[in-house]
Every structure is written in structure tokens, then in C-alpha cells.
């Protein structure tokens, strides 16, 4: 082993056929060799900051990176061993309860999760258990629960319904109703409905679903049928945008029918993956038999999660972001991202071949399609491929069911995507569109598949 240290790192494996990939090797490697192999494996990945498909945070400042390195080893579930981290978790969800206008922060309850998908599933489980208790108390069947959502919902809700035996009832989107807005909701609600999911920042086009309009529709349904249906707000992105950029918009616990809200801290919460949060408006919204009690500072602390051991570092990073930014900082950061998104969308709309589906005025996300009135020798998949050669990852995918014949491209603007970078992207899009528009014969379409899964 000592002699091998004298060999340059890239020459150490010249005599062997290859590194074992799918089984444990017989011999050890020097740490520098193993590092270089793994490092080189990742070289063919795309550049995270040029990935305009992802909502996930791709940059934090040096102080956050230092804090992260200092807390890699903390296990979030071990609240007795790491009581200060457990206390920070509670500070964070109470900050969110206040931000989202819980009637009483003291009577609210929440927790951290590994992302908004777990947070959504906890919200759905609370709906299901609460419905089951009410049905049993009334002497009624608890079979065949259903959950109502838009057909443009994120896949985590499909997973929830599949994993926890709940019928998914999808309200289709259309050109007239591009988001769930309460239209025809009475056709989907019945006595087995456990709740309605409303999305603050639909992943397809970045638009808010109007929580208050959906609540108004459910009020009308209750007036005519007696059915009292709660709302879960999937605020994966918008729950960390609306409080700062649209503070007058009533989408949160100011709407009495909203029982729970989830968000992705690793999206517009400004934290590295993976961290999410879910908060319930009060203790009545979360059935007590779903809560476990763990030892904490000589007492008992409520916890409710699907995962057990998981990193505590991101929880500390969230608290850092809250302290570092405050209302002022979050307004500036989210407002800057929205300004870049609206700049990009307006310039793309001027390019000629494109028609916007959204502008980035809700969350800093927008989508566009090709103008179908003109026959072309290329489609958006071809443009995505051309941009990928320049380093940009701009996804192309079909719209949800009933609109799936429409292909769109989408850009997610994050805090580390500057106006200068946006202008570089615009120049590259313009150059590639110019190349594609000059084609004299059609580009091949074999093997084209969506670049992003919702």
C-alpha cells in the first residue's frame, strides 16, 4: 500500500480491468483513489445551478455550509441526545405557524419531514384518520375513503392514495379551468371524501390554485348537503413565496376550512435537500392517536413522522435561514427571483415561436408552448436537447391528462439564478431557435420522452 501511494492517482488502476461496480471489491483502495473514482463518476452529471427543471435549492452561503459540515452527524429523531436540535425544530414550525396565520401559535402543532412529499402524506393521513373517527362515531362504514385534487397534482399525492388505500378523485384541468378553482366540485364530493388538496404553486405552470374559491365552493356544498370537507394546502413552493410577495392573498389558516399546510424547505425555504414542514391549524386537526411521545429534556415531546432516523443538519440550516433573512431578506430574495422570472418570460414571449402558459407572477416559475398555428421541422424536445449541449437543463413535458397533447417547457428561477445568467440563457435560446427555424427538413422524433416527472 505504501508503494501505491507514490503512484499518481490516475495511474493506480491502469493495471486492473475496472473498479467493481455492483459488488464489494476484495481489496481496499487508498482514500484518495476512492475519492477520485467517486468524484469522476459525478462529472457527467449536469451542473446543478444550470438545472432549470429543479425547484430544489442549489446554493447556500459559506456560513450555512460551515453549519452544515458541523452537524452532518446529528440524528433528528434522537431528541433526548440532541435536545437543542429538537428545540430548534419546534422554533421553526412555530415560526411557520405564525407566518401562515394560525389562529393560535400555541395551539398549533407541526413537525419537520424529509421533504414536502412526506409532509403531504402526513396531512393526508390526518384527514383519513379524522374521517374514520367521525364515521365510526356515527356508526357508519369507514370503507372507500376518497381525496379530491387537480389532475395536475404532484405525484406524491398519487403515492399517498396508492399506499394508504384512498381513492384519488381527479378534477381535470382544461383551457377554461387550468387549475383547481372549485368548478364542478360538487360532482366529486360525497360522504366518503376525507378532504380536498389545493396547490399553492402547481408544478406544471407555477400557478396558484385559489384556496378561497375552493373553500367557498365547499361552503356551498356543506350548506346543501351537510358535508364538512377540510382543505390541505400543498404549499411546496408557494407557502414560502406568498407570505412575502402576496401578503394580502388569503390562502392559509386565515381560511377556516384549511386544516393543514405543507411546504418544501429545500425549495423556496432556502435550505439544501431534504427538508419539509407540515403544520396543523390546531390540535383538533391532528388526531391524537397519530402522535407518538418521545423523551425530551426529561419530559415528553409529540412527534408524527413516517421516517425514523434522518438528518438534523437541515433543520439547523432552516433556523439559520430564518434568522439570517427575516421578513426583509425573504421579501428581497423571493422578489428578486420573481423579477428574473418575469423578465425571462416577457423576453421569451417576444421571440415569436412561443406562447406563454404562465408568466412567473405567482411563484418564480413559468412555462411556454410552441405556437401551433405554424408548421415547424422541430419541437420543444429538440430545443431542450440543443440547450443541453450548452449546459442548460430546460425540461420539456406534456401537460396533465385532458391537455396532454400540449408540450411545454418550463423554467424554475431560484435565488442563485441571477439576471445576468438569465440573459445568457435568453441569448442561447435565441441562437438555438434561429438554428432550428432554418432547418430544411424535419428533425427525428424517435425516442423522445418527457424530461421531468411531476
Automatic annotation (TrEMBL):
Membrane-traversing stretches: none
Modified residues (N6-(pyridoxal phosphate)lysine): 267
Enzyme Commission code: 4.1.1.15
GO biological process terms on file: L-glutamate catabolic process
Cross-referenced Gene3D superfamilies: 3.90.1150.160, 4.10.280.50, Type I PLP-dependent aspartate aminotransferase-like (Major domain)
Xref: SUPFAM superfamilies: PLP-dependent transferases
Keyword vocabulary terms for this entry: Decarboxylase, Lyase, Pyridoxal phosphate
Catalysed transformations (reactions): L-glutamate + H(+) = 4-aminobutanoate + CO2
GO cellular component, one term: cytosol
GO molecular function: aromatic-L-amino-acid decarboxylase activity; glutamate decarboxylase activity; pyridoxal phosphate binding
Pfam families in UniProt: Pyridoxal_deC
Cofactor(s) recorded in Swiss-Prot or TrEMBL: pyridoxal 5'-phosphate
Similarity comment: family membership: Belongs to the group II decarboxylase family.
The protein, known as: Glutamate decarboxylase
Organism for this UniProt entry: Microbacterium mangrovi
Lineage, top ranks: Bacteria, Bacillati, Actinomycetota, Actinomycetes, Micrococcales
Amino acid at each position: 500500500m505504501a508503494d501505491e501511494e507514490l503512484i499518481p492517482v490516475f495511474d493506480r488502476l491502469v493495471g486492473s480491468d475496472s473498479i467493481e461496480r455492483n459488488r464489494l471489491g476484495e481489496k481496499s483502495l487508498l482514500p484518495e483513489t476512492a475519492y477520485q473514482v467517486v468524484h469522476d463518476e459525478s462529472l457527467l452529471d449536469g451542473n446543478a445551478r444550470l438545472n432549470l427543471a429543479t425547484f430544489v435549492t442549489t446554493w447556500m452561503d459559506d456560513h450555512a455550509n460551515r453549519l452544515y459540515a458541523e452537524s452532518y452527524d446529528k440524528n433528528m429523531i434522537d431528541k433526548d441526545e440532541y435536545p437543542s436540535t429538537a428545540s430548534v425544530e419546534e422554533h421553526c414550525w412555530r415560526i411557520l405557524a405564525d407566518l401562515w396565520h394560525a389562529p393560535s401559535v400555541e395551539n398549533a402543532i407541526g413537525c419537520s419531514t424529509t421533504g414536502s412529499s412526506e409532509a403531504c402524506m402526513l396531512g393526508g393521513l390526518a384527514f383519513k384518520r379524522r374521517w374514520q373517527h367521525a364515521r365510526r362515531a356515527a356508526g357508519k362504514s369507514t370503507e372507500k375513503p376518497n381525496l379530491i385534487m387537480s389532475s395536475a397534482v404532484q405525484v406524491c399525492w398519487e403515492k399517498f392514495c396508492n399506499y394508504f388505500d384512498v381513492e384519488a378523485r381527479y378534477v381535470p384541468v382544461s383551457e377554461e379551468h387550468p387549475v383547481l378553482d372549485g368548478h364542478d366540485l360538487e360532482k366529486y364530493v360525497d360522504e366518503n371524501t376525507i378532504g380536498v388538496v389545493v396547490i399553492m404553486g402547481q408544478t406544471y405552470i407555477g400557478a396558484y390554485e385559489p384556496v378561497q374559491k375552493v373553500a367557498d365552493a365547499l361552503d356551498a356544498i356543506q350548506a346543501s348537503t351537510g358535508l364538512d370537507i377540510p382543505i390541505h394546502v400543498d404549499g411546496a413552493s408557494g407557502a414560502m413565496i406568498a407570505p412575502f410577495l402576496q401578503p394580502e392573498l388569503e390562502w392559509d389558516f386565515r381560511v377556516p376550512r384549511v386544516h393543514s399546510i405543507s411546504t418544501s424547505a429545500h425549495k423556496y425555504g432556502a435550505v439544501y435537500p431534504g427538508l419539509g414542514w407540515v403544520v396543523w391549524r390546531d390540535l383538533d386537526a391532528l388526531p391524537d392517536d397519530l402522535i407518538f411521545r418521545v423523551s425530551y429534556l426529561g419530559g415528553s415531546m409529540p412527534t408524527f413522522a413516517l421516517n425514523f432516523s434522518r438528518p438534523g443538519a437541515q433543520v439547523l440550516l432552516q433556523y439559520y435561514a430564518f434568522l439570517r433573512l427575516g421578513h426583509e431578506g425573504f421579501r428581497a430574495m423571493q422578489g428578486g427571483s420573481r423579477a428574473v422570472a418575469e423578465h425571462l418570460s416577457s423576453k421569451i414571449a417576444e421571440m415569436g415561436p412561443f406562447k406563454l402558459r404562465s408568466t412567473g407572477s405567482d411563484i418564480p416559475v413559468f412555462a411556454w408552448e410552441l405556437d401551433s398555428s405554424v408548421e415547424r421541422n422541430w419541437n420543444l424536445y429538440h430545443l431542450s436537447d440543443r440547450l443541453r449541449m450548452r449546459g442548460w437543463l430546460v425540461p420539456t413535458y406534456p401537460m396533465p391528462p385532458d391537455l396532454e397533447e400540449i408540450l411545454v417547457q418550463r423554467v424554475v428561477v431560484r435565488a442563485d439564478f441571477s439576471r445576468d445568467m438569465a440573459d445568457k440563457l435568453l441569448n442561447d435560446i435565441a441562437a438555438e431557435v434561429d438554428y432550428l427555424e432554418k432547418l430544411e427538413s424535419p428533425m427525428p422524433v424517435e425516442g423522445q420522452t418527457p424530461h421531468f416527472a411531476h
